[in-house]
Specification:
alpha/beta; five-stranded parallel sheet; 5 strands; Rossmann fold; globular; 8 helices
Length: 238
């Protein structure tokens, strides 16, 4: 069984990742219609299962870690402790979800991966990229996505969306998951800039989708990038 494809979506909260990962999964599943017109759910036309996950979270242990990391009541969390929790969540996700799915030949769509830690903790918390990448090599076996889709609407647009969403969620559920959104704008400026640095450093892996585009416009660019990578992967497998 050929190894599957690992695709990550990155960007600030409010960049549209959650919406776009759902649309991308639906597009991949739609491609699964076979010659008789019957749909094999979760399978693309080359027989790949589609697995969707997120970080932090995506496993029972990860969901508990996510609550600590995002809850506004988690005050006084040291930056190094925050980064350690991110990697604890990631190690569990790799072992329990990502690696088994890739070994089975699946396409794995992951909402955030180590680029987020490099941007938020390395850039935003000013811990530096070296510390993040060193932990990634040690804890994650240096697992790299085959393709990363980096959504970069304007900083103002992302923050407005994220803070509006968190207010709506708190009103509906009573949960305040806005610990990061309570940071000052300068924190997010550092995150935004670090994302751009990552993209410039790894242009073969990271596809930037920039600007305040519509949901459909972003989806079109994502589909084009994923289709090209699938075609490349199919060619390499022959």
């Amino acid at each position: 069984m050929p190894r599957g494809l690992f695709i990550t979506l990155e960007g600030l909260d409010g960049s549209g990742k959650t919406t776009q990962i759902k649309r991308l999964a639906a597009w991949l599943n739609k491609r699964s219609i076979d010659k008789r017109g019957t749909e094999k759910r979760g399978i693309d036309k080359r027989g790949h299962k589609v697995v969707v996950t997120r970080q932090p979270g995506g496993t029972p242990t990860g969901d508990r870690i996510r609550e600590i990391l995002l809850d506004a009541r988690s005050t006084g969390l040291a930056p190094m402790a925050e980064m350690a929790l991110m990697f604890a969540d990631r190690a569990q996700a790799i072992a329990q979800v990502i690696e088994p799915a890739l070994k089975s030949g699946a396409i794995v769509l992951c909402d955030r991966f180590t680029d987020s830690t490099e941007a938020y903790q390395g850039g935003g918390r000013q811990l530096g990229s070296a510390a993040v990448l060193g932990l990634h090599r040690l804890i994650c076996g240096n697992l790299q996505p085959d393709l990363t889709l980096l959504l970069l609407p304007s900083l103002k647009t992302s923050l407005t969306r994220a803070r509006r969403r968190n207010a709506r969620t708190e009103e509906q559920t009573g949960k305040n998951e806005g610990r990061f959104e309570s940071e000052q704008d300068e924190f997010f400026r550092r995150v935004w800039e670090r994302y751009r640095e990552i993209a410039a450093r790894e242009p073969q892996r990271v596809v930037r989708i920039e600007g305040d585009l519509s949901i459909d416009e972003v989806h079109e660019q994502i589909v084009a990038a994923v289709a090209a990578r699938l075609l490349s992967a199919a060619g390499n497998a022959q």
